[in-house]
Specification:
alpha/beta; about 325 residues; homodimer; Lyase, Ornithine Decarboxylase, Chain A, domain 1
């Protein structure tokens, strides 16, 4: 395909980023949490080119959810301060992380994860603490003991992390703040037992709520989605799925994006001024139809699993079919 | 990574196919609908290697949902009878299909799709008929007129297709049969107006219900998912997501598969003898916990968007961690 000059020339379905909205989001966050007070989470966008923009906004520490994301960041020159904010017990992948010429930490929440990290030669870690989300993380009361075990095995424990994932999406800010405070109290208890200079927590929904974390692990803020848009954050929708109407009648029309170009766990995507009826593999049916050939920009309900389906982002000077396409960047951190 | 010898050696998350279940499914379908009476839909598995197994079971006609699937099939040597069972108006992609040294048909449901096909040099097509699913397809009464328009433009119209997607998943077979009959009556009306030797319809849930279709477009039957498993089909679950428990406590455990390795539009995946609480990007939390390091096989709720997240299938002699891995095949038809 020739490089598209306008959003309306892009072969669909494809991801489009509104450059001004992205820049607004990166600047807004960098002002609120400059430098090391933000550890951008690359799991949301899975792109080293986008991480480089975050670096240009002053953030030098990054975190990731998969070993492949860490290895990809390191290969792209992000060698200063990387955190695998996830548990991993795979010996091969842990060895690959340990052998990087990079300052890499991982998350530990059990003796089994400590055993695996120690055997692979991992040198630094955070103790991952359960702060209310039923997922990874140790009991706060057990954090100090685990830190001792890890240190005895030669792993430098630099602090704690705890993700209040059950809180970041709560719509009402007062409730969200209250629940976040409860979670951060648990994290503070754990940190008192563990020590270390890092208290890593949070996400896009709680980036400005608590004074406790030394750094926030936010990812979605850069691109946003229709779920986060329901909160009162200062971030703008920057990510869209460009799509083309391929079938139309008097009642409904069908756009060429579907379950394989959209993360669906948060429900249907949104189309401005339309009602989305349902998505199937390669289609989205909506009412208030438009003619065949109409280009539309669809807002995904959840950015992370949407990005993971795609190979690249088109960067555009606006979020409309006439906007100029000014760049293409690879989604080069897919997979595990 | 060294090639894994057992399912329990595979780096997780990853797709695993139970070879015996796959073989059962392919044989069962080939017995029920031999040769050209089945047009396997590659959108479900997105793999030319898996299509080759379907070819070895006697099916020589294939259908696909995206131009890239068709181009990939053609490049892999499937040059006999390919159908893009979807509307496409992209001039570049249509030209690429028209220039293949392959017998390619596409679906047409409007004058706009006919215009695009004609301009690109497409030589053959089916008229796509709406048989009740609010998606692509023309009004049955309009099918004959569209066929005339297309033929006037030099496009050979070989018949009709109509996908009763609103019917294929209906749990009760009597209701499913009745609704399928209604849809096939609409398709028969359209075929009477259009003519041609092909009446293409159906899916895994209706492959044996109607006598009308000359061919069935089934895809899910090969690998299956937990949604189709609720029907009374003779097909077995062949596809699993291999996963590892990475965190565990007395109440729940966390496996390393999530929203980026599972299609979620049909809901949570299933784990035998466990209750799945929820999935997040890289995790599935479930109760009745197992220790860290335990290998589990997770059954996806929807095969198509699950396969689209992955790069390959491991073929195994069984669906358990001790089963031998006997092959790896690429998922080489991803994207559009």
């Amino acid at each position: 395909m020739n490089a598209p000059r306008r959003v309306g020339d892009i072969q669909t379905p494809a991801l489009v980023i509104d450059a001004a909205a992205l820049e607004h989001n990166l600047t807004t966050m960098a002002n609120a949490r400059p430098g090391g007070r933000l550890r951008p989470h690359v799991k949301a966008h899975k792109s080293t080119a986008l991480a480089r923009l975050q670096l240009a906004h002053g953030h030098r520490s990054f975190c990731a959810a998969t070993p492949r994301e860490i290895l990809g960041l390191a290969a792209a020159g992000f060698t200063e301060d990387l955190l695998l904010a996830n548990e991993c017990i795979d010996p091969q992948r842990l060895r690959a992380l340990a052998q990087l010429d990079t300052d890499v930490m991982i998350a530990l929440d059990s003796e089994a994860t400590i055993d695996a990290a120690s055997a692979a030669g991992i040198r630094a870690a955070l103790i991952d603490v359960n702060v209310g989300l039923p997922r990874c993380g140790c009991d706060p009361n057990n954090a100090g003991r685990l830190a001792d075990v890890a240190r005895d095995r030669g792993i430098a424990i630099r602090g704690v992390m705890g993700y209040e994932g059950h809180v970041v999406g709560v719509a009402d800010r007062t409730t969200r703040s209250e629940q976040c405070r409860n979670s951060m109290e648990l994290l503070a208890q754990a940190h008192a037992l563990v020590g270390g200079e890092i208290i890593s927590a949070g996400g896009t929904g709680t980036f400005d709520i608590s004074a406790l974390p030394t750094e926030i692990q936010a990812g979605s803020y850069a691109l946003m989605d229709s779920t986060y848009a329901q909160l009162d954050t200062p971030f703008r929708q920057a990510l869209f799925v460009a799509t083309t109407v391929v079938s139309s009648n008097s009642k409904f029309a069908v756009a060429d994006c579907g379950l394989k170009s959209l993360g669906m766990d948060h429900g249907n995507p949104e189309i401005a001024n339309k009602t989305v009826w349902f998505c199937s593999d390669e289609h989205t049916t909506f009412s208030r139809p438009e003619p065949v050939g109409t280009r539309l920009l669809v807002t995904p309900a959840h950015v992370d699993p949407t990005a993971a389906y795609h190979e690249l982002y088109y960067i555009a000077e606006g979020a409309n079919p006439d906007a100029a396409v000014i760049d293409e960047i690879a989604i080069d951190l897919r997979g595990w």
